[in-house]
Design a protein that fits this description.
Length: about 475
């Protein structure tokens, strides 16, 4: 039900809103007018962060891949000036923990923390490294006797200073986990948007049931009016006796979802429902349907397929209700609405007639795709932005003034192109150009096409992108 097209759109939407309000990770700062103990604690704090970077670089898998060096926390550390300056300093000066790096790296590789991280990351859980370094520090490093022996010999050492360092380290881990650039919140938002898309699918299928119930109550009320016409006494019951609506009503999976989620269009907005029912009654589709005596299962299903497609999906009151209910739904309607129509079409084409609801995702690969894509963008944004900036013609464009939506679209496109070898290059490129046309500025489609085309050619020429 949720296909790759909708996944890409949702990833773009989530990243756009997420990155606009991004709260960045930062290191702890040295206290004003620090005591000798505070100076020692802060110096040790920075040396331990450098130690983590060095350990991450010393753990290598087959092919030279460094799984820990590519974690978001280590990448954030490398981008900090204080850590970068120390790394440069220790290339020529003695590093106090130099003799411990290999020993600690082996201890990490043997730990359950590291093994679980590798398993989770392999399973597509891109948030797997969020607590990794916190656990390594508190469980392995803090209690390591060799490390503590070296620390005890450092100038200015005090037990209080070591405890201060631990507080600084854990504040840093909390800061990292709370920062919006670690990706957990973005992926949670993405999962929520997928669940809301699933809800919209069930809601749209249930809508004919509630509209039918509303019409039936209206017909029943007319029988008890003060002045009753012949039409009131003997109304045309074809609409309320629609066999496809009965099929929807008797679908256990649909009914369970509606009941479990307490869904009622009528309770939520009776005025909108009455207006929508009136528009249906005034439509040519309704008039033609009701004028033909008798009805078949096929005709009944086809009637609702046409009503949804031509009346409901274009009704302004209904669209406003969708917008009020969820920020996701107006954008979702085009795709989810199409899948509702396909569900009805499959019912019409089945023999015997049978309603089959679509799964939320086609397969596990699609289910993982969105979260992985978000993870790759957040993990490698700086790299992707550097590629984009290297192509920009500085005489015509200032990279800082690029439309932010264009930047997010291009970064996401590069994340897909570089990390999903099974997806054809042309498919990725065409999809993101179309998204740019629909969701950014008037000229964005051509701009995104031009920039991505040049980046792709550069990567191919450098041998960093093999697919054509």
């Amino acid at each position: 039900m949720i296909n790759r097209i909708l996944i890409r759109i949702k990833v773009i939407q989530i990243l756009y809103s997420f990155l606009l309000m991004e709260k960045h990770f930062s290191l702890e700062q040295l206290a004003a007018a620090p005591t000798k103990e505070k100076r020692f604690a802060y110096s040790l704090y920075l040396d331990l962060l450098v130690m983590m970077v060095k350990i991450s670089e010393s753990i290598t898998q087959r092919g030279g891949y460094q799984p820990l060096a590519n974690t978001r926390f280590i990448k954030r550390l490398r981008s900090e000036d204080a850590v970068g300056s120390l790394l440069a300093k220790y290339r020529t000066n003695a590093y106090p923990f130099a003799g411990l790096i290999d020993t600690l790296a082996e201890k990490v590789k043997e730990s359950g923390i590291y093994k679980n991280f590798l398993k989770d990351f392999k399973d597509g859980k891109t948030e797997a490294d969020t607590t990794l370094w916190r656990d390594l520090y508190n469980i392995l490093f803090y209690s390591d006797s060799g490390l503590n022996a070296v620390i005890a010999r450092m100038p200015g050492y005090t037990i209080g200073g070591v405890e201060r360092t631990r507080d600084l380290m854990n504040s840093t881990f909390i800061n990292f986990m709370a920062s919006r650039d670690n990706g957990m919140e973005a992926e949670a938002m993405l999962r929520q948007s997928f669940d809301k898309a699933r809800e919209l699918y069930f809601r749209l299928l249930w809508l004919p049931v509630e509209l039918t119930d509303m019409q039936e109550r209206k017909l029943d009320d007319r029988r008890y009016r003060h002045i009753v016409t012949e039409e009131d006494r003997n109304p045309n019951m074809k609409f309320v006796e629609n066999s496809f609506v009965n099929e929807l009503r008797n679908c256990q999976a649909l009914e369970k979802f509606i009941n479990d989620n307490n869904i009622s269009w009528t309770d939520e907005n009776r005025v909108m429902m009455e207006s929508l029912l009136k528009c249906i009654e005034e439509s040519e589709i309704y008039s033609n349907y009701m004028s033909v005596p008798g009805h078949s299962d096929k005709d009944d299903a086809e009637f609702w397929r046409e009503i949804l497609k031509k009346v409901v999906y274009n009704n302004q009151f209904f669209l406003e209700e969708l917008e009020d209910q969820s920020v996701f739904w107006n954008d979702d309607l085009e795709i989810i609405g199409t899948f509702v129509l396909k569900t009805i079409r499959k019912y019409i084409d089945s023999d015997p007639y049978r309603l089959v609801l679509l799964e939320q995702f086609k397969d596990k690969e699609d289910e993982r795709f969105g979260g992985q894509l978000v993870g790759y963008v957040l993990k490698n944004r700086e790299e992707y932005r550097a590629l984009i900036d290297s192509i920009i013609d500085k005489s015509q464009w200032e990279s800082e003034r690029l439309a932010f939506m264009d930047v997010v679209i291009m970064e996401t496109a590069l994340a897909e192109i570089l990390n999903f070898p099974a997806i054809p290059l042309s498919a990725s490129l065409n999809e993101y150009i179309e998204i740019a046309k629909s969701y950014s500025t008037q000229k964005s489609g051509g701009f995104v096409n031009g920039i991505l085309g040049k980046v792709i050619k550069q990567l191919q020429d450098e041998g960093k992108l093999l697919k054509r």
